[in-house]
């Protein structure tokens, strides 16, 4: 059994190096005989394809973009590009180009190839039989698939990461292959063995914080929605450690500080320590900084809406504790397409091209003065409205449900409502319906939309 990833990688480097050395050596002899050291022009008289390959020579030559009868420079970009084209096809494990001979201004080249092996059978061990077919499908491991170094690497990483996301922090996957070729003519084939060692689920015994004085450990732990330490009274939330969830919870941790006025809070570092094979402890070092309050908030650039109208949406008063998370949501709440925020106020009244940026103008004495700078632009109108991907019903059935018509004013609420109503038809998955806004024309104030 051979580890294909290591073998192919080593083989690729060695073959590439040998190709260059052999080519340079071959050319050097010719160069000495012809008394030149730089690239020389030749007419490509003949080009042969040799090696262990099942591809038609004419197909290989056509793909290389080298043409018999054309002028080439040796050494030169044309040959380098031909080698690159063949490598990029992901069909070969070895590619060599030789200068067979020269005859005056005529050059005779040879491309020597070894095909990548095809997958014959795959065996997966270490998991239940019912899970095997899913892994084969998810990793595109069908019989006949070209077994590349990348396929082996991505398969190994995908399976390991899949189980790490389920709490098996120490999951390991090995991928080995067995060459089935018996002679130089038979198509190269390999059997693949994937062995999965999930190990045991790793749980969090304790989460500790250092440097926090303003916000308690209890409140900080509560802000970490998906990373929980073991608790005999908590049954709904598991304490398994998932690295991606933990990283997201570190962001939530800082957001908790921002919600309480500590805009400069940051994580100085964090570490994990194994207590045994099944449990770890997390330690997080914090710098809280000072607490801030909102000062004067001024709207700049608004003509469509008054300061009072904008303030009724912003709802942030002078003297209140600084809350960076709430400020961001009041400007543009990405968690809700129809949220009550300043961006949607403009978007729902035709101002597709508007931009809103909060800018701190002063932070003296821990009081933050701000300007909400607004560029309104002109109202946008729908130009072309189209649908694509519909193979469930007649297009006119879809079009009659659209609340966005050519020539009508753009309103974000109309787009959202259209998506919901198309989902209610029963033909489409509302979560997969995507409005594609395109051809933005800020000068004419028009936009196209394709559902």
Structural notes for this entry:
With 451 residues, the chain is α/β, with parallel strands linked by helices. Helix content is 31%, strand content 29%. The protein has a four-stranded mixed beta sheet. A hairpin with a 4-residue loop joins strand 15 (436-441) and strand 16. It starts with a helix and ends with a strand. Residues 1-37 have low confidence and may be disordered.
- Terminal residue distance: 51 Å
Helix proportion range: 25-40%
Strands of the biggest beta sheet: in what spatial order? 2-1-4-3
Low-confidence stretches: 1-37
What can be said about the biggest beta sheet? Answer: 4 strands, mixed
Beta-strand content: 25-35%
Q: Gyration radius, to the nearest Å?
A: 32 Å
**Helix-strand sequence:** HEHEHEEEHHEEEHHEEEHHHEEEHHEE
Indicate the mean pLDDT.
Answer: 86
Number of strands: 16
Count of DSSP-assigned helices: 12
Helix/strand/pairing category: alpha/beta
Overall 3D form = extended
